[in-house]
Amino acid sequence: MSHDLRPHSINVIREGQAPSGAYVASPNFATYHYSWLRDGSFIAYGMDRAGQHDSALAFHRWVDRTLRGVAAKVDVLEAKAAAGQAIDPSEWLHCRYTLDGREGLDEWGHFQLDGYGAWLWSLMEHARLTASTEVLKELRPSIDLVVRYLTRFWDRPNYDTWEENGDQVHPATLACLYGGLRAVNRSLQSPALDETAARIQAYVLDHFVHRGRLTKFADGRSVDANLLWVPVPFGLLDPQHPVVQATVADLEKRCVTGGVHRYPEDTYYGGGEWILLTAWLGWYYVQVGRKNRAEALLAWIEAHADERGNLTEQVTEKVNDPSMVQPWIDRWGPVATPLLWSHAMYLVLREELNV
Ligand code: BGC
User: Which of ligand 1's atoms lies nearest the C-alpha of 162?
Assistant: First the structure.
């Protein structure tokens, strides 16, 4: 039965926000007891869209304090890059932090640039939606740090939005960087930064467009629902651009079975339908005026909430590989529920649909 999950979603997110301001990825899933910059940036955005600005601000301040604590790493990285020295995987800024803002000790594919770009974008959206630039002054040292980091390292291979394929460059990641740098440059007004954004955009068009559509890698075949991020929200290409339209048509064929799968070869918990990506496709449909389709996806999400109204990370009714569901349950427990990022994207879609 479908119903309005908005109040419950706001509660889930508030309950998952630590006193520090960090958002836990999922409270009931041990592996996700961290705050990711990627998840958190979209969660903060969802809260801003839902009018919960104090929560978003607390997250941004937490990111700022956390980054001030690791700022010296960027000096070392820049010095090494300038000297042509190799950088050890352990030296990059981390993609997630403990809720009190420390680096975790577990082994992880930490070199993920997308969350840093998404954070700049989300922070600028916070300033826009609250019609105040005060926060930008307060957080300026961290903004500058992230701009330096991304400007210097944007073209290095790093783990993608799913923390995989660390030996590749990914258009979805580059979209986050493009969107973040462009957004922040509304305030910084630096011609050099505009130029970096233009280079990122050109790189995506040169390397990832094959037969008129975007691919996840430069291999001419692959697809991934994270390619939706290229138009929405980051605007690296317009939602109506023919390349985007062809990409979405390909996604509809290969990744949509009601809800949206990450990519056809995904076997994480079998590779089911992700709530957050289903909302993302709805967000895209609203942008191109296909409101009925977006409403159908909103209804699909609501119908897949559990009896308490919680949204999972993924729905495992229709998976790419049924033999891979149980092995993941044995390893990490049932699918993460509730996932704060799923609830946030649901909030975004509801706001987009104005319901
Ligand atoms: C996803 C990441 C996400 C993390 C925490 C992973 O399974 O691939 O995108 O940041 O979970 O939610």
Answer: 8
